[in-house]
Amino acid sequence: MLLLAALLLADTGPPPRDFKVPVAPAESLAVEAAGRLGGTPVVLVPGLFGSAFGFRKLLPLLTGAGYRAIVIEPLGIGSSSRPRKANYSLTAQAGRIAAVLDTLGVRDALLIAHSIGGSEAFRLAYHRPDLVRGLLSIEGGPTETAVTPAFKRALRFAPWIKLFGGIRLIRRKIHGLLIDSSGDTTWVTDAVVEGYTAGAARDLDATLRAYLAMADAREPEKLAPHLAELRCPVRLVVGGVRHDGDVSGQEVQLLARTVRSFALDSVAGAGHFIYEEQPAAVLAAITRLAASVTERRASGSQ
């Protein structure tokens, strides 16, 4: 598998290549790679309801700017496996992402994460600073749990979902979630909703089990006490429109107070899915992050 992944990444150019990387028995993470080997690696991690599909607008911008883009879907997300007995904690997810990067030989990457993927990215950055040169969290704060209390309460009805419509019900709910979470909702179409739920639709039972496992997961350690250990520059990008799923003021204050190199960007008119609504704004934030990495290294701060 190591040789296969190396060959795929070494000759990756448009269109993107998809493959899976095993990280443990019954655990494989789906990877989508685009761009050429010599480019600075940009690793993208989707959130709870995301997938590589969600970055379809951003990837061409990244490769066009000369980056080597690698999307890694965490366990239970997108097309990654959904084993019954697995540790779905945020800490374990960060460890799996590190394992994929080790398998692919990727180091010193710009790490871009969305929503709960941001919490996984923070954990990865302090556990494995050799893998991360800079971190951009899109609408993702330093949360300590994989799911919100409201989503955890909703999961009590998981056994009834198939009875009351199955994947059709889930798609209706996801459609509403995307609308409520966006500033500009014109990107939310039936085709997009199908793209976001394609992985879940392949095995609905396994998807629901994975969500339940995420809700019940226990973290081996808190994230907040380790934020001061982050060595890389960190940027948080938030949507400027009031919307569901935004980062709390307390989380922003925690990052500003504890992270050595922290910056906050706000994208006017956007909501939670900024890379869907304004992908060029995300590319601009990545450019600023890369510049801050260069400045810190030139000054000897890192």
Quick synopsis:
It is built from 12 helices and 8 strands.
Write the layout of secondary structure elements.
Blueprint: H1 2-10, E1 17-24, E2 27-34, E3 41-45, H2 58-64, E4 68-72, H3 90-104, E5 109-114, H4 116-127, E6 132-138, H5 149-154, H6 158-161, H7 167-180, H8 190-202, H9 204-216, E7 234-239, H10 249-258, E8 262-267, H11 274-277, H12 279-299
Parallel strand pairs: 3-4, 3-5, 5-6, 6-7, 7-8
Antiparallel strand pairs: 1-2, 2-4
Shape: globular
Which regions contain 5 or more consecutive residues with pLDDT less than 50?
none
State the end-to-end distance: 34 Å
Q: What's the main sheet like?
A: 8 strands, mixed
Helix-strand topology string: HEEEHEHEHEHHHHHEHEHH
As a percent range, the share of helical residues equals 40-55%
Strand content: 15-25%
What is the residue-averaged pLDDT? 90
Tally of contiguous helical segments: 12
How many strand units? Answer: 8
**What would you call the structural class?**
alpha/beta
Supply Rg: 18 Å
Strand order across the largest sheet: 1-2-4-3-5-6-7-8
Task: Describe the overall structure.
- This protein has twelve helices and eight strands.
- With 302 residues, the protein is α/β, with parallel strands linked by helices.
- The radius of gyration is 18 Å and the shape is globular.
- It starts with a helix and ends with a helix.
- The mean pLDDT is 90.
